[in-house]
Structure formats: C-alpha cells, structure tokens
Amino acid sequence: MRTEITAGQTSDYLGFDLVMADNLPEPSVLLADRVYDSDNIRKTMEVRDVVPVIPMRKTRKLRVAVDRRLYRLRNLVERCFNKLKNARRVATRYDKTAESFLGFIDITSIRLWLRHLST
C-alpha cells in the first residue's frame, strides 16, 4: 500500500506521479476516476504495459472504450476510503504533522484488514 499527502487544493491527478513513482509491484490494470483521464497518464500506463480503465471526460474528443465490468471493481476502493473515514481522526485530520496522520491511516488500514480476515 502506498499513501501520500498533497496540499488540499492540489488536483488529484498531480498525486498520480507520487504514487506511481515508487518501486511497488507493477500493476496490470489501473482503475481510476475521470479525474485521471489525461493523455499523459494514459501514455505512461501504456509504456509500462498497464491497461488504463478510466472513463472519459465529457470534453474528450477522441473517445476511448472502457471495460465497465473491470471499472465496477473501483467501488471496492471507494468503500475502503469510506471505511477509513469512519475513523473520526482520519475524516477530520486532527493530527498536526503529516507523519502522524499517515501513521494513523496505516494503523486504521491494518485494523480494517484484520477485521476483514476475521470474517
């Protein structure tokens, strides 16, 4: 798992390079929201032999097909974020430093993972 913090007013797709630059195992598919629909991200993923499953923005002139069956799996990620936000400390960000905030996200993620394993 990889977590990064950007400034609150920073667009989501600018954090893409931070997360994908790490030496994590190579994904085979990138499930992402419309925010990540940019030619740069699509080209980066194609060079790395990763299939981008990103719906198109309404303003895109060149239409690209999306595998809707794969895209539905993105719902699992969204539900994970919702469960993380159930931890009040994550939702309101009480921590003053980025290190302690990221640490609590890791602790909450481990707690969710252990709860998932026990069911």
From TrEMBL:
It comes from Halopseudomonas yangmingensis. Residues 31-115 form the Transposase DDE domain. The lineage of its organism: Bacteria, Pseudomonadati, Pseudomonadota, Gammaproteobacteria, Pseudomonadales. This is Transposase.
